[in-house]
Each structure stands twice: as structure tokens, then as C-alpha cells.
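>> received
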Amino acid sequence: MKESTDDEGGESTMYFITFSRKMGTNGSEIARRVADQLRYNFYDTEAIEGAAQEMGFLKDVKEIDEKAPSLFLRFFSQSPEVHLNRLHSVIYELVSRGNAVFLGRGSHVLLRDFKCALHIRVTASLKNRIENLVRRGWHREVAIKAIHKSDHERGAFIKFAFGVDWDNPELYDLVLNMDNLTLDLASNTVLQIANSEEIRARSADAMRSLEMMGLARRAEAALIEAGLIHGPSISVLGPGRIQLTGFVAEELTKAKAEKVLKEVKGIKSIDNQIQVSQAVAGYGYG
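>> returned
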């Protein structure tokens, strides 16, 4: 799929639509219809996991499948942060591949600051959500339990990953209440807004920024997994260019941080400005 082209400057621009949906609202179907009509890439759970497998991060993405880790893991393990960083790097990688519709995974918050993104929330009353699942063949009691479980897990995931409330309408550009909307009307509404010049704001720097943010996430995950939780700080100076700063107690730790990052895909150069100081030895920095 080709990227869009700015009519005035001739620069390549891209657009993204994110969908956050509650179970039983038909939000997935609306997202799929919008992607088909716009001829955008469509990234649901299967597609995101496929990209994660290509990047070697499938295990990480499955570990944090729209649910928050247990309190035990959050307090006594760094693995949740590693998994989250790698999930984010997968989404950034998919963004770099062109115009897309993203379904879930916190993409509406992750891409919130990019003007070239439109964020949709799909909701409905509990009664109608249950009825939708029953019409699909679910037993009523099973449907009720599944909806409550899904709402809890997705809400907890967004709170863990971004510290925000999943239900906050301010996170979205458009909220669709499906109680009185048909699938056609809902998808056509999104298409009309997505195609308007007011919403399709163009950002020439969006692509470069996303690539750099993805690189930063991969680098942070690598350092955490290597046990370098404190001390080294990462800055992305440009595409493929990383700067390390901070304080560590030993030269070996400084060298280890650089060695770890050299194995991260996309990093081409490392400016290692980490300072060695015995003053930080007592703080576990090295």
C-alpha cells in the first residue's frame, strides 16, 4: 500500500486510525470495514503477533495480551516493563509500514500525540453487548462473565501501560455508542471523518519521530533485560543514533551497556557518555 503524498510540498505523509472497543460492541468489525474501505493495513491481534514473531518479540507480546501483569510480577520482576517496551516497539514498527488501522493494544494512547492519527472508541450498553454475544451463539451466563472479565483486563492493561483510564472520553476523537447505530452507519461515520481535511492533519515529522521512539523502546527493553535497570539513560539523537548518559560504579558496567545496545536491531552508532563514579556504588548502579 502506498503512502499519501502532500499536495503542496510533495512530502510523504501517513495516516492512522486506532480503535478501542468493548467486547460485544462489534467494534472489531467496524475497524475491519474501515480498513477495507480505505485500503489501509489492518492490525488486529493476529497481525500484531505476526509482526512480533518477525521481530523476535512474540513471547513478550503474548505475555501482555491486553491484560496487566500480576502485582507480584510488577513489584518483584522487570519482565512486565520489558514486555511492554517490546509491544510498543512492534506497534511503532507497524506504523512505519504505512497507513493503518490498529485494533486495541493501547495504540490510541501510544499514538495520541501524532496529528496524523484518529482515535475511535466503540461502546454500548451492557444489555446490548450481552445480546450481541448471545446472537453469536454464546450462552448468556458465559457471555456476562466474559464481558466483565474483558472489561477488567483491558482497563487494567491501559492503566498499567499508560496510567490512564480506559473509559476517559478525552482519549478519543470520536465515541460510537452502538445502542442505536448500525454497523454501516458507524463505519460510514468514521470514514467521513477520516477523509475530512480537518482530521487528516499532516505531520511531516511523524514518521521520523515514530521510528526513533520505537528504537528507544527496544533499547530500553534490552538494558532492563540485561539487568541494567539503574544508571544508564538513553537518548535517541537521530535515526539509528543512540547516546548513553548517567553514572555507574564500574567501567565494566559502562562497557556492558554499550555491548548490549550493539545487538539491538536498528542501532547504528552509540555515543557512550556514561560516567564512572564510585559515589554511586552504594546505590546499586553498577
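>> The longest helix spans residues 140-162.
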